[in-house]
Structures are given as C-alpha cells and as structure tokens.
Amino acid sequence: MGRTFLLTGPTRGLGLATARALLRREPDATLILAGRDEAALARLAQRLGKARPRARLETVALDLQSAPSIRAAAAAVRDRAPQGIDALILSAGLQFTTDGLTTADGVDLTFANNHLGHFLLANLLAGDVVADGRILFVSSGTHDPAQKTGIPAPDLRTARDAAFPPAAGRGEAPGTAARRAYSTSKLCNVLCAYELDRRIQLCGRSGPGVLAFDPGLMPGTGLARTYPPLLRALWSWVLPNIIPLLRAMMGPNIHSAAVSGDNLARLAVDPSVHGWTGVYVSGRAAIRSSDASYDRALQAELWALSAELTGLSPAEAEFAWKAVSPGPPVRPGPEPEAFTTLRLPA
Ligand SMILES: NC(=O)c1ccc[n+]([C@@H]2O[C@H](COP(=O)([O-])OP(=O)(O)OC[C@H]3O[C@@H](n4cnc5c(N)ncnc54)[C@H](OP(=O)(O)O)[C@@H]3O)[C@@H](O)[C@H]2O)c1
User: What stretches of 78-199 adopt beta strand conformation (E)?
Assistant: First the structure.
C-alpha cells in the first residue's frame, strides 16, 4: 500500500496541480482531498481516480472558516488514515478585495481563512503525521516586504494587529487593507510553521519536518476570483500564456500552477527533503524568509492568540508528545547560511 497524504484546497489552482503531480509521482498513494465544496470534491476524486486507478482517493468536508468543521474533518481524516499520515499539504487560501471583512466573531476574515484554519487543523493532526513525515504550509513571497510583489507589506507588529487590523480607510485606495490582510496572513503561515517546528524540536526526538512554501506568482489560478472583471480576465486568460515574458520582465519567481504544484508535491514525497525542517522553500530551494518571520516572540504570541481564537485546548496543543517517536534527537533546523545547500535536484 502507498503512502497517505492530506491536501487542502485541491479543487483549484495550486492544490489541483499538486494533487495531479503527487499521484503522478506516487500512483499508489492514498490521497485525502479536503475542501468545502463536497460536490466538486466528489467529481475531482472520480476524475483523478480514472487517471490513476491504483490510487485511493478519499474526500473530507472541510471549511477552514469553521472550527467545528475543522474538528470534524480532523476526526474523519484520522478514521481514514489509521496507519498515520505521511504529509499534511496545507494549500488552501483566499485573497479578498473588499476591505474590513470579518468573521462573526469580529476576526479578520483573511487571517481566519488563511491562518487560523490551518493552525487548528495542523495542531489537531500533527500527532498523526509519521515521524519522518512532513507538514507543509503554503505561504507566499508577499509575506516579505523585501520581495516587492506589488502587494502591500504585512502589518504584524503584534499578533492582535493581524487578527484585528485597525479599520481601513487611512486615506488608502479601496482594497489596500484587504490586500495587506493577505500578505499578513501569509506571514502568519511562516511564523506558524517555524513555531510548530520549534515545538516539535523541543521534544528532542524525531518528528515530522515542518516547512513553509512559496509557490511563486501563478497567474490563472482562482486567487483572483474577487478582482474586477477586466483584471480577472487578464489574470485568468492572458497572463498564463505569457509566463516566459513575465519572467523576463519581473523576475524568475513566476510559474504555472503545474510547475509549482510539482514542486510542492516533491516536498511531500521526495526522499531528499528528509531532515529539512523549520525552513522556507521558494520553488525548489530553501531561502531566507522575511526578517519578521524569525521573530521568536512574535511566533509565540501568534501561537497563543491563535489557540485562544480557535479554542485549541492545552491538551490538544501537546500534540508534539504524541507526534514524536523514540529515537536520537534530530538536527536542529539549518542556519540561514546553510540554505543554499537545501535544493531539490532538477
Ligand atoms: N496564485 C498565486 O499567485 C499565489 C502566489 C503565492 C501563494 N499562493 C497561495 O497558494 C495557495 C493556493 O492558491 P491558488 O492561487 O491556487 O488559489 P485558488 O485557485 O483560488 O485555490 C484555492 C483553494 O483553496 C480552497 N479554499 C479557500 N478557502 C477555503 C476554506 N475556507 N475552506 C476550504 N477550502 C478553502 C478553495 O476552495 P473553494 O473553491 O471552495 O474556494 C480552492 O480549492 C493559497 O494559499 C495562496 O495564498 C498563490
């Protein structure tokens, strides 16, 4: 029997491309597809199953904006993977263009959707990930102000700034606060990955590797679904066909979803990734993430606030004791200078 993977956001864009690449690389895999559109999940499982008849495709209902849904999904995943999970691939995410959207509890909707949901899911399932497995958080280059992506820089002096951003309208153009919430949520993904890694490392035993991943700009995905019609058409139909030109004009970190999906699938399955942990991978290589992402106090503060907002109990948060297996302590994550040595082979 093949290995078992959980993938969020499989119905479109990066997630869909990752599902395809994963099954190409591991045709015997059990792939658990988790999403909120159950009809779309069922159709997808059927399509993928036709192309990869040796694979076992499972579906699980998951709405990352709902803690009860996340808890039910974690229980369902555990039922379907009693032998453990080889990789959690946390790809789902949204970008809004309307400022000031919040959950019913008043939490910023982008923060809740892109960070809190995966925070809770990863905590509930980390103990089920096998000791040499992987937990992969999909982030974005927009988390790093040094990368000049065109998206406003994150606003995360305190974790509360991210969860409850100051009201929009400081003389900014409409949509600026919404796009800032996106880059902020992507910084939260990196902070969360590093804190989870640190907690596993603190156990002093071997546990899953935890990575943050930047897929690069991938025109054509559903991420632009709330953009105005003209921009959406440009994103969906024009830009995907001129990626070489875009790379020449804007730099190399622009890929088709198929290329980025394959890179993400490789992080889940490639043996050469064993031992990589607490690092940020862009494309196929580990690189340094933003300065703010290494702020230990901010990592811990975000963790505590996220536990409070999701209702994660201290007992549940002690996943690490369940997750680790007896064995020699693993190497601590590499120092930034070592990043250049962590590269997937071509
Ligand atoms: N596209 C880019 O240029 C780019 C660049 C850097 C990073 N990323 C990151 O890549 C990831 C995938 O984005 P994408 O571009 O592939 O976007 P996409 O095509 O819109 O796919 C997003 C996926 O996430 C799912 N999702 C969103 N909110 C959810 C929720 N509350 N519960 C369950 N599933 C939910 C969507 O399901 P529904 O269909 O039900 O909404 C969809 O399957 C995101 O984390 C994004 O931040 C994208």
Answer: 85-90, 129-138
Ligand 1 proximity of 113 Cβ (cutoff 6 Å): yes
CA pair distance 296, 137, nearest whole angstrom: 18
| Other beta carbons within 10 Å of 127 | 19
Q: Is residue 36 within 6 Å of ligand 1 at its C-beta? A: yes
Q: Model's pTM, two decimal places?
A: 0.95
Q: Does the Cβ of 217 fall within 6 Å of ligand 1?
A: yes
Asked whether 44 lines ligand 1 (CB < 6 A), one says: no
Give the nearest ligand 1 atom to 10 CA. 43
Tell me the two tokens of residue 241. Answer: 């066909």
Domains of the chain: 4-218+257-341 (3.40.50.720), 225-254 (no CATH)
Tell me how far the alpha carbon of residue 271 lies from the centroid of ligand 1, in angstroms: 27
pLDDT digits (tens, 9 = 90+) for 51-105: 999 999 999 999 999 999 999 999 999 999 999 999 999 999 999 999 999 999 9
Residue 143, CA distances (Å) to 23, 40, 109, 152, 155 in order: 30, 30, 17, 9, 10
274: three-class secondary structure by DSSP = coil
Q: Are the C-beta atoms of 185 and 114 separated by less than 8 Å?
A: yes
* Ligand 1 close to Cβ of residue 33 (< 6 A): no
pLDDT for the residue 332 = 45
- Is the CB of residue 118 below 6 angstroms from any atom belonging to ligand 1? no
Cβ–Cβ under 8 Å, residues 16 and 222 = no
Tokens of 12: 């479109």
**pLDDT tens-digit series, residues 290-328:** 999 999 999 999 999 999 999 999 888 765 455 555 444
Distance 117 CA to ligand 1 centre (A): 13
Q: Does 210 contact ligand 1 (Cβ within 6 A)?
A: no
pLDDT-derived band at 275, boundaries 50, 70, 90: confident
302 CB less than 6 Å from ligand 1?
no
CA of 113 to the centre of ligand 1 (A): 10
pLDDT confidence of residue 343? 84
